[in-house]
Design goal:
Two copies of one chain form a homodimer. The first copy, chain A, is α/β, with parallel strands linked by helices. Chain A has a single domain, classed as TIM Barrel. Chain A contains twelve helices and ten strands. In chain A, strand 6 and strand 7 form a beta hairpin. In chain A, helix 3 runs parallel beside helix 5, helix 3 packs across helix 12 and helix 9 runs parallel beside helix 10. Chain A is globular and about 50 Å long.
Chain lengths: ~270, ~270
């Protein structure tokens, strides 16, 4: 049972591997708490809903990924809610701060303090544009991880990420840069399910790196391909946000059933 | 006197141009409220200091740029402080949310709501890696502006930003992308003073775009070159953070004197 306990002696990637094996799940539940999706612009309604989504998916999720935008929108009150969420999730799941931060070294130190120490997240999403000194402050504790944007799931991702540099697309240069920073077995990447070939190319050059794969569901990415390629060597976590949090009548039962359906499909695909 | 008033009929760039001309200042005061720099790890001491920096520089600064990392570090309490700061600055200066955000379209909408509506900032810094759909939600109100990272001031900026694409460095492709999104005269760029040649190349292809130029002072960028090139056609705001906020004995007098010294040098250079 030690894999469930929060063990600081394990690297982030080892802990993730252990948790996935033990739960036989690759599901990351994205907490994009959009008031328009709930049809309720009242913060207390949204807060209750966020706790409901967590309770409804504890047995199925490996990770939870709150997206900071949906909390920052409310300012200080939203950040207080985010503090509660991390504590409500507890220590038996991986928490991913979907913050996409990226700043110069001394500022990145402050963001690392915010995300790892103040909020207590296990990992964070980062933007690579400013290079290694904006990333390294998040990688010096092996039990804390980072998923760095590599090839994203949005339509305009290609505008810059696919530019050709020395006969290879830019995002592969990003993948190599991240590979070079992975001294503590804790540097992962974000790769959209909407970019199936790109996912394969990234997995080929980074066989062990944990991948966080959004874009299945509302954005139209293919679950089967993403899961197979993402997990052909290392771990590929599949993130689902809207397809779980705001499904059907949005009751705990509907949410659990949507998450269970995803996990059953995943187990079938990777049988 | 109308230029001082907050006039919603002006585009962000027009308002910035007017304010610079009226004040004969190109100074942006960066509010990086680092407890280590103050030598005081107490939040109320830092808060008092942030208000002191604002009071000491009102007559000299065109813009204030709080860096979100130094507020997020304290969680909800830090965000409440940031709310107070924006209101304390008031409407007679340009406020720049140094948040370096970048996310897919529906999430970028939430960040825009956070920064422009909840906090009430005039402008924001953004990261271009995810392409135009991560930027456009911040550009659809002409009175609100964005400064998008182009060539940054940190040492590792070159790792990705200088990669050659079709015989031109990547950051110039970013500059062209941003130029193409500037339909409302409100899209600017961040270019480090530590990259003097790069600054000239960016100014050449974006003659009117507002530039936000950090890296003078602690990071070693050249004030004279940055100011001249930055302002040869459009406006180039020079950001100074540590060199003003934490100077000398950190009294209001020392802070005012450091800011006045910068502004006098600027007026001399652009005489």
């Amino acid at each position: 049972m030690f894999l469930v306990n929060y063990n600081y002696m394990l690297s982030f990637n080892s802990r993730l591997n252990g948790l996935v094996k033990q739960k036989r799940s690759w599901l990351c539940v994205g907490l994009d708490m959009n008031p328009e999706a709930l049809g309720d612009n009242d913060l207390s309604g949204l807060k209750d809903h966020s706790f409901k989504v967590i309770d409804a998916t504890r047995d199925l999720a490996v990770a939870y990924k709150p997206n900071f935008a949906f909390f920052e929108r409310w300012g200080a009150v939203g950040f207080a809610w985010l503090e509660e969420i991390v504590s409500y999730i507890g220590k038996e799941h991986i928490t991913i701060a979907d913050a996409k931060r990226g700043d110069i070294g001394n500022t990145a130190d402050q963001y690392a303090k915010s995300i790892f120490d103040h909020f207590g997240f296990d990992s964070v999403t980062l933007n690579p544009y400013m290079g290694s000194d904006s990333i390294l402050p998040f990688l010096n504790r092996k039990e804390k991880g980072a998923f760095i944007l590599c090839r994203t799931s949005n339509r305009s991702a290609k505008e810059l990420q696919d530019k050709m540099v020395d006969d290879e697309p830019f995002y592969l240069h990003v993948a190599r840069l991240i590979g070079g920073l992975n001294k503590n077995d804790n540097a992962g990447m974000v790769v959209g399910a909407t970019a199936p070939e790109e996912l394969q190319r990234i997995r080929d050059i980074a066989p062990q790196s944990p991948l966080l794969i959004p874009g299945v569901g509302a954005q139209g990415g293919d679950l089967s391909h993403s899961l197979r390629v993402g997990n052909q060597s290392g771990i590929g976590l599949i993130n689902v946000s809207r397809g779980i949090s705001f499904v059907g009548d949005m009751s705990e039962k509907s949410i659990h059933s949507a998450a269970a359906n995803y996990v059953e499909q995943m187990r079938e695909i990777l049988r």
